[in-house]
Structure formats: C-alpha cells, structure tokens
Amino acid sequence: MYLGVTTVTDVTGSPDDVLHTLFRSDQGGHEQVVLCQDRATGLKAVIAIHSTALGPALGGTRFYPYASEAAAVTDALNLSRGMSYKNAMAGLDHGGGKAVIIGDPEQIKTEDLLLAYGRCVASLGGRYVTACDVGTYVADMDVVARECRWTTGRSPENGGAGDSSVLTAFGVFQGMRASAQHLWGDPTLRGRTVGVAGVGKVGHHLVEHLLEDGAQVVITDVRQDAVWRIADKNPAVGVVADTERLIRIEGLDIYAPCALGGALNDASVAELTAKIVCGAANNQLEHAGVEKDLSDRGILYAPDYVVNAGGVIQVADELHGFDFERCRTKAAKIFDTTLAIFARAKEDGIPPAAAADRIAEHRMAEARRP
C-alpha cells in the first residue's frame, strides 16, 4: 500500500497534471489529499480532507470509472469541499471529506480491494470517516469496516443504520416543501408537476414522497430498469427519454436533479422551464456563476448540500448509536434551514447558494477561533 501525494506514478497523463489539480487556487484550501494504491488488488483511490474545523471529516466513498486520475482528484476535491458546507449547514460536529475509488465497480470491485481501501482509510487515524456514495453500498461498508473502525453506513446486522437514501430523500422533500412555501406561500406539492432526473437509490424514495403529497411526477434515468420499477408500480408517473426533454416540459414546476453533478450549466439553465430547482445530486452547479444565472431567470435554487443532508445526518448519528426517529427529526429541520437561507438571500440581495455558503463559512470560521 502506498500513501501520500507522492503516489502519482502510473497515472493517466503526467504526474504534473495531477499535482496541478491538487494545488489549483480555486479548490478552497484542502487540509490533506491522500492518493492510495494497492497493486495486488488494483485499488487506486483518492481521499480528500477539506476541513476538520468542526470535527473529523465525514463523507462517502464514490466508486466510478473516471477518465483519468486527474479527473478523480478533481471530483474528490469538489465533493469534499461540498461535504464541509453540508455538514456545517446540517449542524453536525464534522468537517468535510470525500473519497473516490477509480474504476468500474461492476468490473473490479472485490472484497480484497475493499479491505485494502479500509486499511487506507484507517491509516489516517480517524481524521476521515467514510460511508456510502455512488457505486458503494451498505454491504461494501461492512467489508471496509473489517479493516477500519472509522466506517459508517453499515448494515443493522453489523451495528449500523443501513440505507441512508431514505432520509436523504426525506430531506430533499423537506427542501421542496420549503421552496414551495417561499415561492407560492404553501408548503405542499399537491397539484404541482415535478420532474425527477435520476430515480436510483435516492430518487425513487423521493418519488414516493411526492406522490403521497399529491404531486404529478415525471421521471427519467439512464437506467431503464430504474425507470420501469417506478412506472410499473405507479402508472400515473410520466416518463421521458432523457434529462434534456425533462427540463423543457411545459408546465414543469420543480426540477429535481438526483443523479451525478453538473446538472445545472449554461445550456440547461437557459432551457429550464421550472420555477424551482431542488434535488438530491451533489455539486449541481457546473461552475461559478450558474447560481446567478438561475436567479436572473427567476428560478429559485435550493442549495444541494443543504437539502440532501438527510443521509449524512443518519451516518453521523450511527457513530453514536443510531436512532431513526431522532435522525428523522433532525432531517425535518431541513425545511426551516432552507427557509432561513431564502430569507438571508433576500436580505443580502444574493442568490440562495451564496447565502448558504456565507452561513456555513461563518460556522466553520467560528469553530477555528481559539
């Protein structure tokens, strides 16, 4: 096992490309980035610790076939920074971290690889606590935990809380209710048309909340099995071929990006018909300035890391003895937090994303004071 930023051999492109990515000035001052490699199992992973101002960094492990190691580093840096803000806004005593494992989980994920990854996380001595993310599941965390006690998101049979997507979806639903309250004066989605892009681990739970509340739901996903799992059970749910069609639907009230990041960019914002964007995906804004474009078009954006914090609330609680109702009560407060962000944005004359950043940054700055 090789640890540390010196592990930049055998990369796609030159080592300089990876180091340049690590030290870019727009990455927000990460405390530590660890590149892990285990030749025996094929493990290549990046662990990014953005901040420990509020406590040990907490964030999931993404398993994804990145085009290059530099792309993996970039994603880890962006995701870990987002976790610092998410944990701060959720009121957790945790900083932000994230890990990515490079490769197709369908092809290379093995028990030995996960155990090697667990040893990598354990070598940090608790500065980073890992959990599930895209491409990793509760069963994977059970394996990682055999080598690393700083693992959460485990199965109930192994002392964990199980699937965190349930509370993630619940929190996003609370963010939607708050958005509806702010824009239309009523915290319900009844009679509103909501487009959900991505109906996997979190998205399909979100659809259930929306249907129970009386919303009209239209869905899309790159995986047809995920789409038909919902459509077969709920024939009233509409289906479109792709996200490009979804965002252009006439009469769309709310757009919920629930897949990978970067859903909100120059092209999609220009074509978006919805009046509210509120979804579970991380890093929805492709670049700085998109939040202003949304605001200029009169589209209310509920910051992703605020509304999708239900899952991290759950995995953080697991570290202290999980109680579902306690977590659900905490996740329900996302409604009030989202309303407070909209109020701050109006007061300061800034987009909601900027208002959320200010509130989170203030909490982290206060924690750093002696």
TrEMBL record:
Gene Ontology CC annotations of this record: cytoplasm
Q: Where is the Glutamate/phenylalanine/leucine/valine/L-tryptophan dehydrogenase C-terminal domain?
A: 162-369
Subcellular localization is given as: Cytoplasm
Q: Which GO terms describe its biological process?
A: L-valine catabolic process
Please give the pathway this protein is involved in: Amino-acid degradation; L-valine degradation
Identify which top EC class this enzyme belongs to.
oxidoreductase
In this protein, the active site sits at K98 (proton donor/acceptor)
Note the Pfam families from the entry: ELFV_dehydrog (PF00208), ELFV_dehydrog_N (PF02812)
Positions that bind NAD(+): G198, V199, G200, K201, V202, G203
- The principal localisation class reads cytoplasm
The lineage's top-level taxon is Bacteria
The EC number of this protein is: 1.4.1.23
Q: Which family does it belong to?
A: Belongs to the Glu/Leu/Phe/Val dehydrogenases family.
Indicate what this protein is called per its UniProt record.
Valine dehydrogenase
